[in-house]
Design goal:
The structure is a single chain. With 150 residues, the protein is mainly alpha-helical. 53% of the residues lie in helices and 9% in strands. The strands form two sheets. Strands 1-2 form a two-stranded antiparallel sheet. Strands 3-4 form a two-stranded parallel ribbon. Helix 5 runs antiparallel to helix 6.
Length: 150
């Protein structure tokens, strides 16, 4: 599953459902930056190994995990969201990465669209919240920089 967010619209591409590798390659060319949370350690190495030509090399990557660490926010994405007061929609509040994997497995086992719809909503919350976190973190990093330079 790939979740893409351009700051306005989301696109969720699901393997064997809405997944098209050529369309995904074309879509990535529209983006000027990739923003992830822990993507340096997990997402990007996996994607580059499995689909080596998918993400253009000239797109910069901003991993919020490391930026969050610089302002004292550690742990996983959900913990950072809570620390910053970011709320998730009730339907997916409390779900984590393990739950996402279980939802995928339940969908594959049953074909019940409820599971895939819930997984898509969960993923959508992840990618939308990255923008909010990035805005907060960048602002705090700028404030820290200004204080150091005074």
């Amino acid at each position: 599953m790939f979740g893409l967010f351009d700051g306005i619209d989301t696109k969720i591409l699901v393997r064997n459902i809405s997944w098209d590798l050529d369309a995904l390659k074309k879509e990535f060319k529209k983006y000027k930056m990739i923003v992830t949370y822990n993507g340096t350690s997990f997402d990007l190495p996996f994607v580059k190994k499995r689909y080596p030509d998918l993400i253009p090399d000239n797109i910069p990557h901003f991993d919020l995990r490391f930026a969050c660490n610089r302002i004292g926010l550690t742990g996983g994405l959900k913990g950072v969201e809570k620390a910053l007061g970011i709320k998730r929609r009730k339907l997916v509040d409390g779900l984590d990465g393990g739950d996402a994997l279980r939802l995928w497995k339940m969908y594959k086992a049953t074909g019940d669209e409820h599971y895939i719809n819930l997984l898509v909503e969960y993923n959508e919350e992840d990618i939308i919240n990255l923008k909010t976190i990035a805005n907060i973190v960048v602002k705090k990093l700028k404030e820290q920089s200004i204080k150091r330079n005074q």
